[in-house]
């Protein structure tokens, strides 16, 4: 157990926080570090902003299965039409 | 000036999500969207020799896609009268209400929000293209599809700490990229 994190470790906890995967103790030590370190405060603020942007953007993705199908279709087409 | 070249093998990985988000807000139908995109890629393959290399691959594909979307509109609007406005008031008591109900509500900002969201969405996807393919793929799985850490680790055969390093790098370059392209 250690209470004082380095900046790199803080960043990792901060990243985990964005996916709600940091433990209570990790969050506590991160907060402690943030009080002392302006750099990490900036990083943490930007990181939260990025998460919020991605949430509001509500990006839709092709499902992996559909992507494979599309790839197969393209590949087949590429074989039948020779490159010019 | 460096001329762009086409890599059709990478189209699906690099542009499918971008084109999907571009189309879905315009067509509003997931199945039609997928069809349009596969048509676009196929048309792109056939028209490869017309690509002069002056635009980026994505811009070129978008220009094909735009035409496909217009065709799609035409097809779905070919039955006459679909775009007509219908006034549903027939008795004299409720006269005048129609106009009021159809006036724009100044406090209703949903349309503007949607436009802004679309721009943000495309900006994020553009920035994702600047990452390397594997990094982008892992980031998308983790962040957008919200797949569990251990599932991703198994699929890519990496340890969780590897994953967090990749996520950290991806987030950092995305932040920088968005700061440049979006916030200003």
TrEMBL record, chain A:
Q: What's the protein name?
A: Glycine dehydrogenase
The species is Aequorivita viscosa
Lineage, top-rank taxon, reads Bacteria
Automatic annotation (TrEMBL), chain B:
Q: Which Pfam families match?
A: Sigma70_r2, Sigma70_r4_2
* All residue ranges annotated as the RNA polymerase sigma factor 70 region 4 type domain in the record: 122-174
Q: Name one GO biological process term.
A: DNA-templated transcription initiation
Q: Which GO terms describe its molecular function?
A: DNA binding; sigma factor activity
Boundaries of every RNA polymerase sigma-70 region domain copy: 12-77
Keyword field: DNA-binding, Sigma factor, Transcription, Transcription regulation
Name the family: Belongs to the sigma-70 factor family. ECF subfamily.
* Listed PANTHER family: RNA POLYMERASE ECF-TYPE SIGMA FACTO (PTHR43133), RNA POLYMERASE SIGMA FACTOR HI_1459-RELATED (PTHR43133:SF8)
UniProt protein name: RNA polymerase sigma-70 factor, ECF subfamily
Source species = Aequorivita viscosa
